[in-house]
Design a protein that fits this description.
Distance between the termini: 8 Å
Number of strands: 10
Number of helices: 5
Strand order of the largest sheet: 1-2-4-3-10-9
Radius of gyration: 16 Å
Largest sheet: 6 strands, mixed
Oligomer: single chain
Structural class: alpha+beta
Shape: globular
């Protein structure tokens, strides 16, 4: 879904792109489902295109309607994805902090004020493309994150790091305005 002109509270200069994808992944062949573990995971990416001034968040998960609690973006501030044991205040408060603080400082302040931070994941990118990410030690295995200029990726309840690495590998090759079109 792309929010733009005509949407209440969002001007042409404050375009925000939010894409939500829901998925479930089984690591078993259909013929061997009996006694087979099913892996369902969540991965997300927060990205900011400094050339176009666009912020975006994408989430892939088995949880229906999770975007209402985990996706936060504002072109004038940046983008935040929160997952694992979700605290939506991390996104709400984080967007406000991003108005005047870097992604690193925003993450530091959010974690310091959150008694449940050990069970959470947060991916943040600010309006300058600076990124930060956190994976608490009590999140569901397997969990991890990557952060680089322009984006931060996080994943949990995954088989391994491949999902996070694959999302990270695609980011530097995105065209300058891709986050506004996806």
């Amino acid at each position: 879904m792309v929010l733009g002109d005509g949407v209440a509270g969002v001007t042409h200069e404050q375009r925000v792109a939010v894409t939500v994808i829901r998925s479930s992944v089984s690591r078993c062949e259909p013929s061997t489902q009996q006694g087979c573990a099913v892996h369902v995971g969540t991965s997300s990416i927060a990205a900011y295109d400094v050339v176009a001034g666009c912020a975006g968040v994408a989430v892939s998960t088995w949880m229906p309607s999770i975007e209402a609690l985990s996706v936060f973006a504002r072109a004038a501030s940046g983008a935040i994805a929160t997952q694992a044991l979700i605290n939506p205040l991390l996104g709400i408060d984080g967007l406000e902090l991003l108005r005047t603080h870097s992604a690193d400082e925003t993450l530091r302040r959010l974690l310091a004020s959150d008694p449940g931070s050990d069970s959470r994941q947060v991916a943040i990118v600010d309006k300058y493309g600076r990124s930060a990410a956190h994976t608490g030690p009590e999140t569901h295995p397997w969990s991890g994150r990557r952060a680089a200029p322009g984006y931060a990726v996080a994943g949990n309840m995954l088989v391994d790091m491949r999902t996070v690495d694959a999302a990270s590998a695609r980011c530097p090759r995105w065209p300058a305005t891709a986050s506004c079109r996806r």
